[in-house]
Amino acid sequence: MTGNPRNDAQPSAAERLDRARWRSRRGLLELELLLKPFVEGGFSELSEARKQDYERLLECDDMDAHEWLLARTEPPADLKDLIGEIRAFLELS
């Protein structure tokens, strides 16, 4: 017998947003306070490629991501555009 067909399907937009919300809860509160408003107000508007970038960002070290979002250090090239979009959304200069 094969597995549940739903397990093989892509998650719905709502499921993906819920997963992003959950994963945006971080051990570093300062980072969570940046990510939560973005995931609530900006994640759904991202292109598929940018959503994948956001999911990759959530795999990064909290301190690194925090430093990138505050423009203290340069983000990796593959996340640079996403970091810029998050900063613009949060109106960080």
Describe this structure in words.
The protein is mostly helical. The chain has helices at residues 5-8, 13-23, 29-41, 48-57, 62-69, 80-90. It has a domain at 29-93. The protein is built from six helices and no strands. The mean pLDDT is 91.
Strand count, sense and closure of the main sheet?
Answer: none
Count of DSSP helices? Answer: 6
Please indicate the percent range of residues in DSSP E strands (runs of 2 or more). Answer: under 5%
List the uncertain runs.
Answer: none
What is the first-to-last residue Cα distance?
A: 55 Å
Would you count the extended β strands for me? 0
CA radius of gyration is 14 Å
Q: What structural class do the secondary elements suggest?
A: mainly alpha
Average of pLDDT: 91
| Helical amount | 55-70%
Shape: globular
Order of helices and strands: HHHHHH
Features:
93 residues, mainly alpha, 6 helices
In short:
The protein has helices at residues 5-8, 13-23, 29-41, 48-57, 62-69, 80-90.
List the helices and strands and how they pair.
Elements: H1 5-8, H2 13-23, H3 29-41, H4 48-57, H5 62-69, H6 80-90
